[in-house]
Design a protein that fits this description.
Blueprint: H1 3-9, H2 13-24, E1 33-34, H3 43-49, E2 52-54, H4 66-71, E3 74-77, E4 107-111, E5 126-133, E6 141-144, E7 159-165, E8 172-186, E9 190-204, E10 207-213, E11 221-224, E12 236-239, E13 246-247, E14 251-255, E15 258-262, E16 268-270, E17 275-277, E18 311-312, H5 348-364, H6 367-373, H7 375-383, H8 389-399, H9 402-408, E19 412-413, E20 419-422, E21 425-428, E22 433-434, E23 447-452, E24 455-458
Parallel strand pairs: 2-12, 7-17
Antiparallel strand pairs: 1-18, 2-16, 3-6, 4-5, 7-8, 8-9, 9-10, 10-11, 12-13, 14-15, 19-22, 20-21, 21-23, 23-24
């Protein structure tokens, strides 16, 4: 990987010191995490406060029963991006064998380099002394659904609830409502199988006071109960087109480098008509992912609710405020029909074009594109103890001189200098980069491009 990544992720003292200094610059209010506590939960209250979810009128990816999603999927195992099994763990999948109540939960052996494999897999041999269960959180299990389930089932699908208690105030509690969609399709940098969304209804002395919105992983915020036009005890929540992010109002919303659109003209999902306790589901206890892992930010299937999962900000008092109001000049609506994505050329030229895209993005400080193209390499660095891609590259942008950043915006790669390491793997040496300034190995470094899942990515 280039020194753009090396300086930000590989431990060069200046970059790491800069990261620590930036983190320490200002105090950040700590998030309070809470887990489900079913001891005082009430199914009657859970149904009473369950929200009315208003879907976008152009929404084609509807909610779905999570159990039926499992039954239509294949259970596979991903060895932390090291290799993917060709042979499924289970096909078909029995939802009951995913959970903690299973007498014989699905299990899978780990791999150990150098050991021969007894199965037709692309991984090294399986080590008999290392075994994972489907209830192990993040062990490597993932559900692989067919494309035809992406459209979901419609607003008759179930919603799922769990009960939380405030850590220090016994008068406060909350019902968290989980919504499941089989596919997330946001135009820019966020497409993946499986989509778990949630909101929380905050109570004081058993009476509703506010609703918490998770906001795509940003700091959770809350809206007063009265401001959500509750009808018969049910607040209205708006589901964003394609991404299904939950919002308190219709319109255009900017959050975490994303633009979401909600509408008050779509179908109504009366979740209280089919709301279920999540800990009563047959798959309760499954600790894997609900979709394939591409090891690229925004393209990985998420984890869903599972025992002892700690959620941040369920009892947030931070008001949602202007972030959920339409901007003065909202972006134009997306086209009625989005063009179907085409696989990138699986050629040397395709790898070069993608690497040039990465260089241009670094020059423009386009963090979304940089972290998408360099996702696998960034994930590897983060696993080694460095910060998330979005943090480290923003620090790196500040360290690149303006003349070099400008040069990267129009840089090209000389095909004659590119080295083929394998049919789907090319090395991009510093010497092959053509720009208005000359880069040394210390300033740019070599990068490796690999073809994975119909696209080229920086992997080293």
């Amino acid at each position: 990987m280039s020194s753009v990544r090396v300086r930000a992720m590989a431990g060069v003292g200046v970059a790491v010191s800069a990261s620590l200094a930036l983190v320490a610059c200002g105090p950040e209010k700590p998030k309070e995490y809470t887990g489900a506590d079913p001891s005082e939960a009430s199914a009657t209250a859970a149904a009473q406060f369950a929200p009315l979810v208003r879907l976008h009128e152009k929404e084609s990816l509807m909610p779905m029963d999570a159990t039926r999603f499992i039954e239509r999927s294949v259970l596979r195992f991903d060895h932390d991006g090291f290799c993917r099994e060709e042979e499924p763990v289970a096909d078909p999948v029995d939802p009951r064998r995913l959970g903690t109540r299973a007498a014989a939960p699905y299990r899978h052996q780990d791999v150990e380099p150098g050991k021969p494999s007894s199965k037709p897999v692309s991984c090294p041999g399986h080590a008999s002394d290392k075994e994972h269960a489907a209830t192990d959180v993040g062990a490597g299990f993932y559900l692989d659904p067919p494309e035809e389930v992406r459209e979901g089932e419609g607003p008759g699908a179930p919603a799922y609830w769990e009960y939380h208690k405030h850590k220090s105030d016994p008068a406060r509690s909350a019902y968290v409502y989980w919504f499941f969609y089989p596919y997330n399709n946001l135009l820019v940098g966020n497409r993946h199988e499986g989509d778990w969304e949630r909101v929380a209804v905050q109570l004081r002395d058993g009476k509703p006071r506010a609703v918490t919105f998770a906001k795509h992983g940003d700091t959770p915020c809350s809206v007063k109960w009265a401001d959500l036009n509750p009808s018969d005890g049910h607040p209205t929540v708006y589901s964003a087109l394609g991404s299904h992010g939950s919002y308190p109002a219709s319109g255009v919303h900017r959050v975490s480098h994303t633009v979401d659109r909600t509408s008050d003209k779509g179908a109504e999902w009366r979740t209280w008509d089919n709301v279920r306790p999540v800990d009563g589901q047959p798959w309760w206890g499954y600790g894997g992912w609900w979709g394939a892992q591409e090891h690229v930010k925004g393209f990985n299937g998420p984890m869903g609710p599972y025992p002892n999962r700690q959620l941040p900000g369920v009892f947030s008092d931070e008001p949602c405020g202007d972030a959920d109001k339409p901007p003065a000049d909202p972006p134009a609506d997306p086209p009625e029909e989005q063009p179907e994505e085409q696989p990138a050329p699986r050629t040397k030229e395709g790898a070069i074009k993608r690497y040039e895209q990465f260089l241009h993005a670094v020059g423009r400080e386009d963090i979304d594109t940089v972290c998408e193209v360099a996702g696998p390499a960034a994930k590897q660095a983060e696993d080694q103890g460095f910060g998330p891609c979005e943090v480290t590259f923003r620090i790196t942008f500040q360290m690149i001189p303006p003349t070099q950043k400008k040069a990267l915006q129009t840089a090209t790669v000389d095909p004659q200098g590119v080295i083929e390491l394998a049919p789907d793997r090319f090395e991009m040496p510093t010497a092959a980069v053509r720009a208005s300034v000359t880069f040394s190995d210390d300033e740019l470094g070599d990068s490796t491009m690999e073809y994975m899942k119909d696209e080229w990515y920086v992997v080293d």
